[in-house]
Write a structure and sequence with these properties.
Strand order of the largest sheet: 2-1-7-8-9-6-3
Distance between the termini: 105 Å
Oligomer: single chain
Shape: elongated
Low-confidence stretches: none
Number of helices: 5
Mean pLDDT: 82
Order of helices and strands: EEEEEEHEHEEHHH
Largest sheet: 7 strands, antiparallel
Strand content: 25-35%
């Protein structure tokens, strides 16, 4: 029996199926040649496509799923993030999800039930966390622009001129001497 619960609330129904999609998109770099060159476009968050049946007599179970999908975070006003308990989610290392795309319920008159389907998207995937840490590390290594300018100005006033600065100073002197000589004529 497949179990699916979000923040401890069990999704009730029968015939539950959870399919996981893990996207690894690539762009074709071959142009019009027969090359197989591609460019990786990163790892995208996993999507869990859930389908189940809910009997007409258990309409409150369908309402419960709808309310979960509509629930918002009070602080941010965005869709609520749920801790998920499901064997497929565990196998893919998914711990948190939020509702995405759409929630559908199709009537199955012969079974006196609804065929319910919805999509849960992974929140804070491992790839996303790794990328975020790399960005933070690079920001820590980078010197703020204002500090760099200040340090360059400070070093210019306290250090000896470089050989290039000496060459420019010499040329400026010589050119200034030639300009004053031509002005006298």
């Amino acid at each position: 029996m497949i179990i699916l619960s979000l923040n401890g609330t069990e999704i009730k129904g029968y015939g539950i199926k959870v399919d996981c999609e893990f996207s690894l998109p690539e762009s074709d770099l071959s142009g019009k040649s027969s090359s197989t060159a591609t460019a990786e476009e990163g790892e995208k968050a996993c999507r869990l496509r859930v389908s189940l049946n809910i009997k007409y007599s258990d309409a409150d179970d369908l309402k419960s799923i709808k309310l979960l999908s509509m629930d918002k975070d009070n602080d941010t006003g965005t869709r609520k993030i749920y801790n998920i308990d499901n064997q497929t989610a565990k196998a893919f290392g998914i711990r948190q999800v939020k509702f995405s795309d759409k929630l559908t319920a199709r009537e199955l008159d012969d079974a006196q039930a609804w065929l319910v389907s919805f999509v849960l998207i992974e929140h804070q995937s491992i790839s996303e966390k790794v990328e975020s840490l790399k960005i933070k590390e690079n920001e820590a290594k980078a010197v703020p622009a204002d500090d760099k300018v200040i340090s360059e100005e400070a070093s210019a006033t306290t250090s000896q001129p470089t050989w290039l600065e000496n060459v420019f100073a010499y040329l400026d002197e010589k050119l200034a001497g030639e300009d004053s000589a031509t002005d006298e004529v």
